Amino acid sequence: MNNTVNRKASRQVVVSSGRRVSPGRRLLPGLLMAVALLAISLVAVTPADAVARTDINRAGIEQLIEFRRKREKLVACEEIVHMPTDFGEFDLHLYRSTIDGQHHLALVKGSMSARRRTLVRVHSECLTGDVFGSRRCDCGPQLQQAMKQVSAAGHGVILYMRQEGRGIGLHNKFKAYSLQDQGLDTVDANETLGFEPDLRHYGVGVQILRDLGVRKLDLLTNNPKKVAGLSGFDLEIVNRIPVEVEVTDENRTYMKIKKSRMGHILGNC
Ligand SMILES: [Zn+2]
After folding, report:
1. Ranges assigned E (strand) in the chain
2. Position with higher pLDDT, 76 vs 59
């Protein structure tokens, strides 16, 4: 008898009032809340929401994420620190994507205003180029050039998106480099590995820019697809400003492929 009482008592928990309740009763409020939230999400929608929801049912995970990127705030600014650099003084904002937990950086010069045009560079991480000065690509010099231009303008943002290797990740980028060493170009190497030539997306970047207060911008890029990728999310891209850097013997072939096969606008190769 005592054992039965003890087993029953051990399954009970003390709530804040000091009462002892069984686990089943403890779960009930949470369950009711979940049902209420589900009911609200099903009922409290406009016709446009209903159509969008029908579309979602037909689409896959990617489309669902894209839908959330457009309609929900999916970034959080976690820290802001002062960042003096070789190219001037900035504030460095650390953002986190709530979709995948990935961190991205925004190097900010001056204060943002919805009415004022902001000079923006959206730079995708290239560890080999940005950190080691790799001459296989033009990423490092482009990043430095953009920092110089934003610093000189006294007002702008360099968004540093952690999508290494045009979105395929560091390991696959190394595999792609290995294939390029065997004679494939950058597009064929990615396709041989089973990837699209460019898997980058800019929805999270748009959200960070909007969170910073940017609405109108001049975009520093040679890539028209980046202009298209950033447009249409309540951001107005007023001008595309080229970021042309020196073409070297080592990156000349790569640059030509970017021009001929990826549509980059490059006047110097
Ligand atoms: Zn690079």
Report:
1. 13-14, 20-21, 75-85, 88-97, 103-109, 117-124, 156-161, 216-220, 236-241
2. 76
